[in-house]
């Protein structure tokens, strides 16, 4: 195998499709035998595999149906970030690793175990667990990998780690003519109801087993999915995956997707791997209809809409940004992600805190490269949906340009990053009275429902909740009141500093208290600022007092903060300078907005 890969020209290797630094690949079996990283059948050998007779013989030894196969390189000092393979493809496939060039110092981590995969061995593992690898040696690691459903012979060869069978040597035979079989059958465009039921009930069982998930919310989600499955089954046996049936399946999928957010899946996590439920849900919804998707981020951006004057809501955590977002998102003019866009940015390896020494959620213009810009836009376009929950790529009429509304708490630390990507972006700064806001942050930490980094390296306090501020290491050993104060103060200071560097017409501010006291007046001013009409839907939303957002922990009460007064009072003097800057903003900002 080493001889065969030594003959590969350097320019044949491809950089990792998700831009993992120091990772490159060579496709051996791929969609239609082309040079790509797709999942769709037919899977066929590439021109590279044709030049590797011994690797073909190794593949044949497993006597199983072959899916994707690649050679994967990992450079010294580089790694693959911790992740879960949440693409629907992985619910039925397993991946085999055969190290060709490696070093005993390289460890592969999956769940709470780690192993060294030695050269010439064959390994598989549960990629539903969070897994990662770091190459801290001077060796360029190269693995041969292939994906398979696994035949009975294949699984008969498998043994648990530590109880392996005898070593089997596979000699090279010059006259051998290995017979390989490939995945070539294309499944129906629509998932059959039996498979649909299996996947949703498996997911619900995983959510129900997590001790921190709200049981009532999981039960509500289960009932929603049971009704959805029943309707899906009715259409399947009436229409099947016919042209008319596909239209009805699309309506069903859009309908249930529009309802999912009210059960707060953003906060739900899977018991099996403690991973956020939302990316898994998105992957499953995408798999329900197997219509071909664009092949790359470049293709998605090329064929998708332009972002015209996108609007980003930025605020300290627990300032009421979800309430403001839910209010404005009712407008016919706005397109959103249907929820918060954490994974849309942090799924890009170079932007993940884990790959930046867990410094913070802060991103500046320096993080914007052409590739990053392309991938963020593509991630946004994939999930764009209108006020009715209909995705852009499924809408009867697809506008060439969209007014995009986004609210993700971590974006409070990313204003320069977002402004670099979207030069015409507008920012709404939402702020809240310090005592009430800091008290709400304390409640969020205590609730355990807002944990963002449960295994934060070096952190020994309660599991880290909400956004990760620069300098979080200084809070080690501090009481919760001080941690909450710093999240409020430092986030607001960064917002104020970043906004001060922008033209005055590109941002405005509003207080949470003003939004509650006069919803119609506040929303009218924001529409004027954003250049939007105050449409019928917005009028109906603000005609009555605003309903609490889906993330509200307890009923609104202006005196609620006093329950945490003892914890936060010692730290309030440290908020004074930032609070004064916010108070001094209002007259100028309201003037600019009008």
Looking at this protein, list some descriptive labels.
594 residues; six-stranded antiparallel sheet; 20 helices; globular
Descriptive report:
- By secondary structure, this protein is an alpha/beta fold.
- Helix content is 37%, strand content 14%.
- The chain contains 20 helices and 20 strands.
- Strands 1, 2, 3, 5, 7 and 11 form a six-stranded antiparallel beta sheet that branches. Strands 13, 14, 15, 16, 17 and 20 form a six-stranded parallel beta sheet that branches. Strands 6-10-8-9 form a four-stranded antiparallel beta sheet, with no helix packed on it.
- A hairpin with a 2-residue loop joins strand 8 and strand 9.
- Helix 5 (193-208) packs antiparallel against helix 6 (215-238) and helix 6 (215-238) runs antiparallel to helix 7.
- It is globular and about 85 Å long.
- Residues 587-594 have low confidence and may be disordered.
For the sheet with most strands, the description reads: 6 strands, antiparallel
Strand content: 5-15%
Structural class: alpha/beta
What is the straight-line distance between the termini? 70 Å
Number of DSSP-assigned strands: 20
Shape: globular
- Rg is 26 Å
| Low-pLDDT regions | 587-594
Overall mean confidence score, pLDDT:
89
The total count of helices amounts to: 20
User: What percentage of residues falls in helices of 4 or more residues?
Assistant: 25-40%
Summed up:
The protein is α/β, with parallel strands linked by helices and 594 residues long. The chain is 37% helix and 14% strand.
């Amino acid at each position: 195998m080493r001889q065969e890969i030594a003959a590969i020209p350097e320019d044949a290797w491809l950089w990792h499709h998700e831009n993992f630094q120091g990772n490159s690949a060579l496709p051996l079996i791929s969609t239609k035998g082309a040079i790509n990283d797709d999942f769709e059948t037919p899977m066929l050998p590439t021109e590279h595999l044709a030049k590797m007779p011994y690797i073909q013989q190794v593949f044949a030894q497993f006597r199983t149906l072959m899916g994707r196969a690649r050679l994967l390189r990992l450079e010294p000092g580089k790694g693959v970030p911790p992740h879960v393979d949440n693409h629907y493809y992985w619910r039925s496939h397993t991946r085999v690793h055969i190290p060709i060039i490696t070093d005993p110092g390289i460890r592969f981590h999956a769940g709470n175990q780690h192993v060294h995969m030695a050269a010439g061995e064959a390994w598989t593992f549960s990629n539903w667990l969070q897994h990662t690898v770091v190459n801290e040696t001077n060796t360029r690691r190269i693995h041969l990998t292939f994906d398979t459903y696994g035949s009975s012979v294949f699984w008969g060869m498998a043994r648990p780690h530590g109880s392996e069978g005898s070593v089997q040597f596979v000699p090279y035979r010059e006259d051998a003519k290995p017979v390989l079989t490939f995945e070539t059958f294309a499944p129906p465009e629509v998932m059959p109801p039996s498979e649909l039921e299996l996947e949703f009930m498996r997911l619900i069982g995983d959510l129900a087993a997590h001790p921190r998930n709200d049981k009532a919310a999981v039960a509500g989600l289960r009932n929603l999915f049971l009704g959805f499955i029943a309707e899906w089954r009715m259409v399947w046996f009436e229409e099947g995956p016919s042209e008319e049936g596909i239209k009805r399946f699309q309506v069903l999928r859009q309908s249930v997707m529009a309802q999912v957010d009210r059960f707060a899946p953003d906060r739900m996590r899977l018991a099996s791997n403690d991973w956020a439920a939302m990316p898994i849900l998105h992957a499953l919804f995408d798999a329900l209809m197997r219509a071909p998707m664009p092949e790359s981020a470049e293709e998605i951006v090329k064929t998708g809409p332009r972002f015209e004057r996108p609007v980003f809501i930025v605020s300290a955590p627990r300032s009421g940004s979800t309430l403001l977002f839910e209010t404005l998102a009712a407008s016919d003019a706005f397109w959103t992600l249907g929820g918060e866009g954490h994974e849309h940015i942090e799924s890009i390896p170079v932007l993940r805190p884990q790959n930046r020494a867990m410094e913070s959620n802060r991103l500046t213009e320096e993080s914007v490269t052409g590739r990053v810009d392309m991938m963020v836009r593509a991630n946004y376009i994939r999930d764009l949906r209108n006020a009715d929950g209909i995705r852009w790529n499924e809408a009867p009429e697809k506008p060439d340009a969209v007014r995009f509304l986004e609210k993700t708490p971590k974006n409070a630390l990313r204003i320069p990053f977002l402004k670099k990507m979207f030069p015409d972006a507008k920012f709404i700064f939402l702020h809240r009275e310090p005592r009430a806001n800091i008290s709400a942050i304390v409640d969020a930490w205590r609730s355990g429902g807002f944990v963002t980094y449960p295994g934060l390296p070096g952190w020994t306090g309660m599991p880290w909740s909400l956004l990760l501020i620069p300098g979080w290491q200084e809070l080690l050993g501090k009481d919760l009141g001080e941690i909450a104060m710093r999240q409020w103060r430092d986030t607001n200071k960064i917002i104020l500093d970043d906004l001060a560097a922008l033209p005055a017409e590109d941002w405005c501010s509003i207080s949470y208290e003003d939004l509650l006291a006069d919803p119609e007046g506040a929303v009218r001013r924001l529409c004027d600022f954003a250049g939007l009409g105050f449409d019928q839907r917005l009028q109906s939303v603000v005609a009555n007092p605003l309903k609490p957002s889906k993330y509200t922990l307890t009923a609104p009460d202006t005196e609620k903060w006093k329950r945490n007064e003892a914890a936060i009072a010692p730290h309030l003097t440290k908020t004074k300078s930032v609070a004064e800057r916010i108070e001094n903003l209002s007259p100028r900002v309201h003037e600019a907005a009008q």
